[in-house]
Amino acid sequence: MLRAETRAVAPFVLSLVGGVLILLGAIVASIFTFGSPVIYGSMSSSMSGMMGRMNSGMWMGMMMGGMMGIYPVFSIIGLASGALVILGAVMLYSRPFEKDLWGAVIIAFSILGILGGMGGFMIGLVLGVVGGTLALAWNPTPETAVSTPVILSSNPTPETAVSTPVILSSQQTHGLLTAILGYAWRGSGTFALLANV
């Protein structure tokens, strides 16, 4: 397995947490966008009370029409941004030699997540941008750039078993991360969507 210094661990963790917060913010925004009539009913009664009796029906109709037209687009952008920040973090961890690509993806979608995901309550935005910036600034060791699997002998000696690093392929790393995150998020349908990406 790759050692900690051959992986971008801090950018991975910061970006992953930021992506989860952006996704949660987008889910909260989606509840209000695609929410129940109770939410819209309470909004209409409070808005009509604030605006007075004069033309309250006209103003409320205009506001609700505007909300129904553009907010669903923002909610979808927020959900996609959160998912892509999480995907970028996982790919950054599993393919550290592509750090520039995944760091840029993390930064771009963290910033875009402010539209529909409230920027992950602004904390997700900051964590995503810091994680993406750390990924861009991180310099991998030469061992990371050459990721060839090591074939171990069937009867390793104690010296070779300790000193020979085992480098996992990207499929093995994806399977390991899927198992770890699946265990952490067991029972929720959120990870099932992410695991099939």
Query: What is the 3D form?
Result: elongated
As residue ranges, the low-confidence spans are 187-197
| Radius of gyration using CA atoms only | 23 Å
Helix % is: over 70%
Q: What is the string of helix and strand elements?
A: HHHHHHHHHH
- Sheet/helix structural class: mainly alpha
Tally of contiguous helical segments:
10
Estimate the mean pLDDT confidence: 74
Largest pleated sheet: none
Q: How far is the first residue's CA from the last residue's CA? A: 24 Å
Strand content: under 5%
In total, how many beta strands? 0
Would you mind describing this structure in some detail?
The chain is mostly helical and 197 residues long. It has a domain at 4-139. Helix content is 75%, strand content 0%. It contains ten helices and no strands. Helix 4 runs antiparallel to helix 6. The relative contact order is 0.17. Mean pLDDT is 74; it is low at 187-197.
